[in-house]
Task: structure prediction
Amino acid sequence: MDFIGAYSPDHIIFLLKGFWVTLKIAGISIVFSFILGAVLGIARYAKIPVLAQISIFFVELIRNLPLLLIIFFVYFALPEIGIKLGITWSAIVALTIFESAMLAEVIRSGLNSVHKGQMEAGRSSGLTYTQTLWHVILPQGMRRMVPPIVSQFISLLKDTSLAVVIALPELMHNAQVINAQNINYIIPVFLLVAVIYFVVNYLLSLVARRLELNM
Result:
């Protein structure tokens, strides 16, 4: 094991560049997947015609497929039908598709956990269905959604490493590039990568606990 060589300034900078790509891909995917997941989850909860059926089909289909297959499909199969995306956007689209299905179920479950009497109380007070959903059901359901939503975000951050199969220059990809230079770098580099993932994900879990307590 060569810790000194593995942790040279050039290698550390190279890993940090990869980690920045990881954070960027994860951040964009989180935003898109949350928006799509919220639409699908609320549509299913509210039983909106057509949209609810589309949501059920999409969620059940994606949840039973491996993320790696979705990444391959987006990057290799879509160009065959004229939809060609770069490496970065292929990773973002694949992660968004996969994660939105997971978040849709989290959001639907969170809304369903609110007692039905709350909807009836809101409607009887003169609020419309939409107003009751927005002002009464969502605030109560959100408290229950926060931990699983953050858990999904943590999973998404870790899942960006799967994009190494399409050569996305994220953290794991750059770690493998360094390891290819010298077999003695493997353990030190992977230890450092593990520490980076652990620190970031642990901080996210602490944020989730704080949010849960304050809501």
About this structure: Residues 19 and 152 are 19 Å apart (CA to CA). The mean pLDDT is 88.
